[in-house]
Design the sequence.
């Protein structure tokens, strides 16, 4: 089999965003709760990550992609054998999965799909803010603080003055020059530029510790964990992992889809390490644009599909479980005869998660972040309320 | 009006006079495709693809076997192989060629549109395409066709080796084809791969606005099945693209309501139909306006471009002239936040920054060696600024929407690099007079700008401020 380096390389390009500092609001709550979203770009194959056990339809259609030595999660589902860190969390009652779920998008374009997974909307490019950004705004969280990556992901847009940060060794120009630019921007009514310059001028990360930081995924996740742990630190972190679009050489245990899953898995590990005990007050969720076809294609890869799975981790989970309303894999049970169906609107999970972490009534989130769409409150079932 | 020079090109350099008729100045650059202004080595795509072949073959077929039990040895030899095939050098050379067109040629307007098309038919980050062939693809298939009809560019880009490989069409095998049958006899399954077909519709020609369905995508993939690099034991996937009837889906296909026969000719017929679909010209007109003028182009802006397309049958020089004229007419009304690459090139041109290493210096490079630091400066700089032109993350290329580039982090890069760039200027351009003249030539409000930058004494600070003023960031 041809081994393409593409997916490995793409998988390594992890980026991180931290946001949502809210000192005043925090004073009123007894503990600081954190939300981490890991965006899995390219279409994560839920059936590769969390395969169903003993389904002949599945085994027949994917004979070259079936995994050996999967880890049994319950009587129906197993875990990809390379997801060791997630399994570790699972065993500690800190891991769970929602299966056969997706955002309500069925057209199979990466660009449209990724746009919708971030905006939470129905029409690609129609909404200019992200569901997480809108949720944070509702929670009265501020964007300023730090975030790591270029450029700002759509998911976080919607709160003013979001910041991002990507490690670099370069030195900033002197502060008075930055201040002058800021005042020029303000005078010329370039408010967006003025906001950005304000953030830059106030940045402390540039001189302390930030300079020696590595761009490697494990180091970014560790940093994120350490920052989230701080009582006055950020409450939201967003990662992205690329490379799930495995049209070719998806392979089995050592294939290209595994490389990207391992990348995700290492984020779980470093986050846990960085967070320490604060993992108890944290919720980690994954997000992808769609799953992949059940049937393998000519290149031992898979095509763009529909239903996928959400990985969840952290102490705010109610319990270890694979939560699903399993639609089945017989041809007539599949979406358009080819894809795992989605029986849970993934946005119900995200809305419930925000409701739990930000302490906002589900109905309010549903109405103000997701336009009153028909979502289900899953907080009781999935999270500690 | 002077922002027009920056909107459609990169401003006016120290040796250029302000043209008496700016619109004519711009339009006159669009008729022909002149020789490259880079005076050093320029390698054909085929030769660069051979280096790519040597690398993938050497790695996959030789080193991985030879060193399967020796991780360190493998690493060491693979590194040698990288240098033997120029992996760290060629894309730097390509960037020199690319940026010379913006900074040293007589046709910077053509260069700015070249970058547009390279990004439209983007080869995004995959394997080592960027290091070996993407630059050459943009020279030989994109730029070389800028005095042709759009159709010709689309035809050649679609079956260009880089594009076919980039979008997995070599994996696209008709499920009823001979090859699929052979595979079934061996107990394997081979089938269609929709990737390239989908992008051809969505990104390169008609766009989702035309309303195609999933079935259209699959049918288009059937038409494209069989188009792939000629496989060879030594060439692997780097052979020339050809049509292999054994992998082609038999039978008639239907895309957007039109029937196509089986066989090699159908792809070209289908592309002809796609580029003549009204959605295609509308999509391209919108993208040109978005690139040159504003994030939200209006119907009025797009109309003259669509008209020029219809009148000339998509003849690109005419389409380009129409787009440039629209940009001219709207130049006072709209300013667009420039992407990092365009910003860098504006600064380099107007302030005479020595951005590009000299041809003789680049030609000193010898295969097998690690390129020296200054030979790799451009690759690293573009990465720092956040927009390496050969490393777009996805097949839709780099975004041309302002908001995607407006972030504190990216602004920091501009602040930092503006300062560094100042020290790359020749002594004679490090004078107050130089800046006064440059500002006079390139900005509509020179006295206001001078007043602002003169609040700082040192010239380097004036330089940093100037290139981060709204007037410069947006044009």
Sequence:
């Amino acid at each position: 089999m041809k081994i393409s380096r593409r997916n490995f390389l793409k998988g390594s390009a992890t980026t991180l965003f931290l946001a949502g500092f809210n000192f005043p609001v925090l004073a009123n709550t007894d503990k600081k709760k954190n939300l981490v979203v890991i965006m899995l770009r390219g279409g994560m194959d839920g059936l590769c990550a969390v395969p169903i056990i003993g389904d002949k339809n599945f085994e027949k259609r994917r004979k070259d992609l079936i995994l050996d030595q999967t880890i049994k999660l319950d009587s129906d589902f197993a875990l990809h054998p390379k997801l060791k860190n997630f399994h570790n969390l699972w065993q500690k009652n800190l891991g769970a999965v929602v299966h056969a779920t997706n955002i309500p998008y069925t057209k199979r374009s990466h660009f449209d799909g990724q746009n919708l997974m971030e905006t939470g909307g129905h029409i690609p490019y129609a909404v200019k803010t992200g569901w997480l950004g809108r949720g944070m705004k509702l929670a009265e969280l501020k964007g300023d603080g730090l975030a790591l990556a270029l450029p700002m992901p759509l998911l976080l847009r919607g709160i003013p003055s979001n910041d991002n940060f990507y490690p670099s060794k370069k030195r900033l120009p002197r502060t008075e020059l930055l201040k002058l630019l800021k005042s020029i921007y303000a005078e010329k009514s370039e408010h967006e530029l003025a906001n950005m310059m304000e953030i830059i001028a106030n940045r402390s990360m540039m001189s302390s510790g930030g300079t020696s930081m590595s761009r490697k995924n494990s180091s970014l996740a560790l940093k994120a964990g350490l920052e989230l742990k701080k009582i006055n630190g950020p409450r939201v972190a967003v990662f992205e992992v690329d490379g799930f679009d495995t049209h070719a050489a998806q392979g089995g245990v050592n294939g290209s889809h595994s490389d990207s899953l391992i990348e995700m898995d290492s984020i779980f590990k470093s986050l846990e390490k960085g967070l320490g005990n604060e993992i108890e007050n944290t919720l980690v969720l994954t997000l992808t644009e769609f799953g992949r076809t059940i049937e393998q294609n000519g290149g031992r890869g898979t095509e763009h599909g529909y239903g996928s799975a959400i990985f969840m981790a952290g102490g705010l989970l109610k319990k270890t479980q694979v939560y699903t309303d399993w639609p089945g894999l017989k041809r007539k049970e599949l979406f358009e005869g080819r894809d795992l169906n989605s029986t849970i609107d993934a946005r119900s999970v995200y809305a419930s998660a925000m409701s739990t972490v930000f302490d906002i009534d589900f109905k309010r989130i549903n109405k103000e972040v997701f336009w009153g769409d028909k979502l289900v409150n899953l907080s009781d079932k999935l999270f500690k309320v | 009006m002077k922002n027009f020079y920056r909107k459609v090109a990169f401003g006016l350099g120290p040796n250029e006079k302000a043209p008496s008729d700016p619109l004519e100045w711009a339009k006159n650059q669009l008729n022909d495709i002149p020789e490259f202004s880079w005076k050093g080595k320029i390698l054909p795509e085929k030769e660069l693809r051979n280096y790519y072949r040597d690398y993938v073959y050497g790695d996959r077929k030789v080193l991985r076997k030879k060193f399967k039990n020796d991780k360190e040895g493998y690493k060491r030899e693979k590194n040698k192989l990288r240098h033997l095939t120029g992996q760290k050098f060629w894309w730097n050379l390509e960037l020199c060629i690319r940026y010379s067109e913006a900074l040293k040629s007589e046709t910077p307007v053509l260069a700015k549109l070249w970058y547009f098309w390279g990004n439209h038919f983007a080869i995004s980050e995959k394997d080592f395409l960027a290091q070996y062939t993407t630059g050459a693809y943009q020279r030989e298939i994109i730029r070389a066709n800028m005095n042709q009809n759009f159709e010709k560019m689309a035809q050649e880009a679609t079956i260009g080796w880089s594009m076919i490989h980039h979008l997995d069409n070599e994996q696209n095998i008709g499920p009823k084809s001979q090859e699929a049958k052979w595979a079934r006899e061996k107990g394997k399954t081979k089938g269609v791969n929709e990737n390239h077909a989908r992008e051809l519709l969505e990104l390169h020609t008609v766009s989702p606005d035309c309303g195609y369905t999933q079935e259209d995508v699959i049918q288009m993939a059937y038409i494209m099945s069989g188009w792939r690099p000629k496989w060879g034991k030594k060439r692997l996937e780097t052979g020339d693209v050809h049509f292999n009837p054994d992998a082609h889906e038999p039978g008639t296909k239907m895309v957007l309501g039109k029937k196509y026969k089986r066989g090699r000719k159908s792809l070209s017929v289908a592309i002809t139909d796609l580029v003549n679909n009204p959605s295609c010209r509308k999509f391209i007109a919108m993208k040109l306006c978005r690139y040159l003028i504003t994030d939200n182009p209006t119907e009025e802006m797009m109309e003259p471009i669509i008209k020029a397309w219809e009148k000339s049958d998509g003849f690109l020089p005419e389409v380009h002239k129409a787009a440039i004229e629209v940009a001219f007419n709207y130049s006072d009304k709209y300013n667009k936040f420039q992407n990092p690459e365009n910003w860098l090139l504006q600064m380099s041109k107007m302030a005479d920054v020595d951005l590009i290493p000299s041809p003789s210096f680049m030609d000193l490079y010898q295969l097998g060696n690690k390129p020296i630091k200054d030979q790799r400066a451009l690759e690293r700089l573009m990465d720092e600024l956040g927009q390496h032109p050969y490393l777009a993350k996805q097949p839709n290329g780099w975004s041309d929407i302002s908001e995607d580039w407006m972030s504190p982090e990216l602004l920091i890069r501009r602040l930092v690099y503006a300062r560094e760039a100042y020290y790359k200027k020749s002594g004679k351009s490090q004078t107050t007079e130089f800046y006064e003249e440059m500002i006079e030539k390139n900005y509509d409000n020179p006295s206001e700008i001078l007043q602002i930058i003169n609040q700082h004494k040192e010239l380097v600070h004036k330089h940093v401020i100037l290139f981060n003023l709204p007037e410069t960031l947006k044009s």
